[in-house]
Amino acid sequence: MDKIIVLIGAPGAGKGTQARLLDERRGIPQISTGDIFREMKTLDTPLAREVQEIMASGKLISDDITYKIVRERTSRDDCKATYVLDGYPRTAVQAEQLEQLAKEQGKEIQAIEVDVDSEELMKRLTGRRSCPVCGEIYNIYSMPPKVEGRCDEHPDAELVHRADDNEDSVKTRLDTYRENTAPLIDYYAKSNRLAKVDGSGDVEDIYSEIDGLL
Ligand code: AMP
Q: Which ligand 1 atom sits nearest the alpha carbon of residue 38?
C-alpha cells in the first residue's frame, strides 16, 4: 500500500534535510507546509499577509487553512503514490484531518520521529542558513559553506537566514512544538505506526536509518 510518511520532530531536528534526501534519492515527493507558506509570502493577498505575520512570530497557521493547503498539494499527480510530509501534522486536530485524507487517498500513515535535544536545536536554528536557489541547508557552526555566506553550488546566491530563525521566534516555535506537536508522538506510538531515529548524528547515517525503515 502507498504511504504517507510523516516526519515528526522539533524545528531544527533535520526533517527538511531528510525529506529532501528522500525526494532526491528515492523520488518520494517532499511536501513541506513550511516551504509552501514561505512561498505564499511573496504574494500580496490578505491571506498571504496574515500567514507572514503568524510565521514571523513562530506561531501556527490555523488547522483549517493548513489542511486545505495540504489537501490541495497532495491531490496533484506527483503524490499519487507515497509522499513524505515534512512539518505536518503539528496539532491533534491536524492529525485527525490527516487520518481522513489518508483514508480518502487509500494510503497508510507511517510516522518517524527525528529526535534531537533542545540545546542542540537552538544552535542549529540560529545558525541555519539556506540557499535561495536550490534550498541547500548550511549551518554556520556545524556545516559552513566553503565560502562564507555563499552556496557551494550557487556562489552568486547569498545564503539567507530565515526571518523566524531568530532567538525569540525559535523559543516560541520550540514551545509550540512541545505543547502541540510532541503529543502526536504518543498518538502514533499507540497505534503502532511510529519509529524513532536519533537525529543528533551524521546526516548520512540518519538518512540510512530512515531509508531502512521504509
Ligand atoms: P517550518 O519550516 O516547518 O518550521 O514551518 C515554518 C512556519 O510555518 C511555522 O512556524 C508555522 O508558522 C508555519 N507552519 C508550517 N507547518 C505548519 C502546520 N502544519 N500547521 C501550522 N502552521 C505551520
A: 8
